[in-house]
Design a protein that fits this description.
It is built from five helices and seven strands. The chain is an alpha+beta fold and 148 residues long. It has one domain: Aminopeptidase (3-Layer(aba) Sandwich). Helix 4 links the parallel strand 4 and strand 5. It starts with a strand and ends with a strand.
């Protein structure tokens, strides 16, 4: 059993965001708000956010595969884990630990992640991986986490 990552283009990213979101009803209901009634609309919304950030920063896009099967994605810039997702049926300890090792390899020893504060599930996951909340921005409802 092995996990691999591969750099992809922004044009390819939506396919992997879809894989990460499909079947995760809690993600759609709780974290993407009521405006998203489908996986497609949540993927579209995510891609808009990624596109907007790509106007300001040079982003890197990665697909994540488990035994050559695509299971998710992550997006980075500079020392920031910007967006990520792994298919719900693949969120197993072995896979998540291997994925996290790749994230740390790509970003280095010290990096950050910014999430909306209502995304408590992802914040909790990053904290379990060793990241710490360093700032809570009440104005834009975001949490800044740091990995050192």
């Amino acid at each position: 059993m092995s996990l691999t990552i591969k750099k992809i283009s922004k044009a390819q990213l939506a396919e992997y965001v879809d894989i990460a979101y499909r079947g995760d009803e809690e993600l759609l209901k709780r974290y993407h708000t009521a405006q998203h009634e489908s996986v497609e609309s949540a993927v579209f919304s995510t891609m808009i956010l990624i596109h907007d950030m790509s106007e300001a920063k040079e982003l890197s896009y990665y697909k994540v595969c488990w035994n050559k099967e695509p299971i998710g994605y992550f997006v980075t810039f500079e020392n920031v884990l910007y967006s990520f997702g792994i298919a719900i049926k693949k969120r197993k300890k072995e896979i998540l630990e291997a994925w996290w090792s790749y994230v740390k390899f790509v970003l280095g020893k010290k990096f950050f992640s910014v999430l909306y504060d209502n995304n408590t599930r992802a914040i909790s996951f990053l904290e379990k991986c060793g990241m710490k909340v360093v700032e809570h921005n009440l104005e834009n409802h975001s949490i800044l986490l740091s990995c050192q």
